[in-house]
Amino acid sequence: MTFEIRPYPEFGWSMSRQRKLDQCPRGYYYAYYLHWNGWLDDAPTEARVAYRLGKLTSLDALLGQEVDERGRELEAAARAGEAMPAPHDLEQRTRAALRRAWAASQNGRSAFEQRPNRVVMLRSLYLGQDPQPETDRLNEKVGPSMHGLLATSHWRRLHGRGDEGRVEIPAFAGFMWDGVKVFAAPDLAYVADGTLHVIDWKTGREDDTQPVQVLLQLWWALETYPELARAAAEGSLDIRGHLEYVTAGVTQPVEPPTPPAAPDGGVAPTTLDDLRDACAGTVRAGIAQMRALLADPERNVPLPKDAFERRESGLCATCNFGPICA
Ligand code: SF4
Asked: In three state form, how does the secondary structure of the chain look?
């Protein structure tokens, strides 16, 4: 098999990429362009440094990953008809994983610098920042997050179903739209009792873009699985989005767009086209904003660094790229 080194990354759109651009164009440049090929030994130093810094993580981000992992374990247990674990067991597993990440960060500096994609490295430890506020916050969040995850309605619906209604979510789930790959992976999706449920776990604060993110995930599900899109159009499948703020223990339902009334005046089902219409404006505007920062949109070649505004804010304190941001 030949291995091709691409000089520029592939262009794609996602809500997290859009947030990054909206927060700080310079940070977006570092994360999506400067880092490219920085994993190669003979890459320019600035690319290798940006790649390494881009791999730094935080305890908050690791908690999010652990919630995803516990969610997958709970789905498996529920589908198998097993008793759900106690919140205390989930908390212990999660704390153990976070402790391993902490130890890897404390002892793995040189291993991380050699292979940044193989070793977990906490930003606070790597950059010599005070880790106490982060550890205190995490200590308070882990228990409530496990309680909140366990208390969601999904395990009851999935109990004893085996593989019935399973919706597979591949890594980097996305679909092509208007010639662009749109990434929109939910954390969990399933069909139960004539309803497609799409779920996003959240351990942080609410933000205005999160309901749109779940609508994009519903769009992904219908775009990826034509049988689900057909059933929705025929009215035999309802669709429902859930934003699960597990740390706060709050569920926010995400209502699918309301289609025009049916010819007989009744309620028309929400279709794939309705979801596309609801999300297309956000995606189209984001793609245009990103393409305006390209010297060559065909090859995804960025404009020079100075075209990407440094937007200093409170977020600079937790930005991975502080050491190279000038
Ligand atoms: S340190 Fe601040 S200005 Fe620089 S990339 Fe990060 S968020 Fe943007």
From this structure: CCCCCCCCCCCEEEHHHHHHHHHCHHHHHHHHHHCCCCCCCCCCHHHHHHHHHHCCECHHHHHHHHHHHHHHHHHHHHHCCCCCCCHHHHHHHHHHHHHHHHHHHHHCHHHHHHCCCCCCCEHHHHCCCCCHHHHHHHHHHHHHHHHHHHCCCHHHHHCCCCCCCECCCCCCCEEEECCEEEECCCCEEEEECCEEEEEEEECCCCCCCHHHHHHHHHHHHHHHCHHHHHHHHHCCCEEEEEEEECCCCEEEEECCCCCCCCCCCCCCCCCHHHHHHHHHHHHHHHHHHHHCCEEECCCCEECCHHHCCCCCCHHHHHCCCHHHCC
